[in-house]
Amino acid sequence: MINILFILLLIFAGAAIMTERPVRGAVYLGVFSLLCAFIFMLYQAPDVALAEAIIGSTLATILYLVALYQYVE
What pTM, to 2 d.p., does this model score? Predict the structure, then answer.
Protein backbone atom coordinates (compact mmCIF):
# COMPACT_ATOMS: atom_id res chain seq x y z
CA MET A 1 0.00 0.00 0.00
CA ILE A 2 2.75 2.45 0.88
CA ASN A 3 4.52 1.75 -2.41
CA ILE A 4 1.37 2.66 -4.33
CA LEU A 5 1.15 5.95 -2.42
CA PHE A 6 4.77 6.78 -3.22
CA ILE A 7 4.13 6.07 -6.89
CA LEU A 8 1.08 8.33 -6.76
CA LEU A 9 3.25 11.03 -5.18
CA LEU A 10 5.65 10.83 -8.10
CA ILE A 11 2.80 10.91 -10.61
CA PHE A 12 1.18 14.00 -9.10
CA ALA A 13 4.51 15.78 -8.67
CA GLY A 14 5.33 15.15 -12.30
CA ALA A 15 1.85 16.21 -13.38
CA ALA A 16 2.14 19.45 -11.41
CA ILE A 17 5.44 20.26 -13.06
CA MET A 18 4.54 19.18 -16.59
CA THR A 19 1.08 20.75 -16.89
CA GLU A 20 0.72 23.85 -19.01
CA ARG A 21 -2.25 25.24 -17.09
CA PRO A 22 -1.36 26.84 -13.75
CA VAL A 23 -4.76 26.07 -12.21
CA ARG A 24 -4.31 22.37 -12.82
CA GLY A 25 -0.81 22.59 -11.38
CA ALA A 26 -2.18 24.11 -8.19
CA VAL A 27 -4.81 21.38 -7.90
CA TYR A 28 -2.19 18.68 -8.50
CA LEU A 29 -0.06 20.21 -5.75
CA GLY A 30 -3.05 20.09 -3.42
CA VAL A 31 -3.57 16.41 -4.15
CA PHE A 32 0.16 15.83 -3.69
CA SER A 33 0.01 17.47 -0.28
CA LEU A 34 -3.05 15.44 0.69
CA LEU A 35 -1.23 12.23 -0.24
CA CYS A 36 1.72 13.37 1.89
CA ALA A 37 -0.64 13.87 4.83
CA PHE A 38 -2.02 10.37 4.35
CA ILE A 39 1.50 8.92 4.29
CA PHE A 40 2.33 10.78 7.50
CA MET A 41 -0.73 9.15 9.10
CA LEU A 42 0.52 5.73 8.01
CA TYR A 43 3.89 6.50 9.61
CA GLN A 44 2.18 7.28 12.94
CA ALA A 45 2.69 11.06 12.83
CA PRO A 46 -0.84 12.45 13.23
CA ASP A 47 0.27 15.95 14.26
CA VAL A 48 2.38 16.38 11.13
CA ALA A 49 -0.40 14.87 9.00
CA LEU A 50 -2.97 17.27 10.41
CA ALA A 51 -0.72 20.27 9.81
CA GLU A 52 0.02 19.10 6.26
CA ALA A 53 -3.65 18.53 5.51
CA ILE A 54 -4.75 21.91 6.86
CA ILE A 55 -1.90 24.12 5.72
CA GLY A 56 -0.41 22.32 2.74
CA SER A 57 -3.44 20.81 1.13
CA THR A 58 -6.20 23.25 1.96
CA LEU A 59 -4.82 26.70 2.73
CA ALA A 60 -1.96 26.73 0.24
CA THR A 61 -4.14 25.42 -2.58
CA ILE A 62 -6.81 28.04 -1.93
CA LEU A 63 -4.19 30.81 -1.81
CA TYR A 64 -2.63 29.61 -5.08
CA LEU A 65 -6.01 29.51 -6.80
CA VAL A 66 -7.06 32.93 -5.52
CA ALA A 67 -3.75 34.42 -6.65
CA LEU A 68 -4.09 32.82 -10.07
CA TYR A 69 -7.63 34.11 -10.51
CA GLN A 70 -6.55 37.60 -9.45
CA TYR A 71 -3.70 37.44 -11.95
CA VAL A 72 -5.97 36.34 -14.81
CA GLU A 73 -8.57 39.07 -14.25
Answer: 0.88
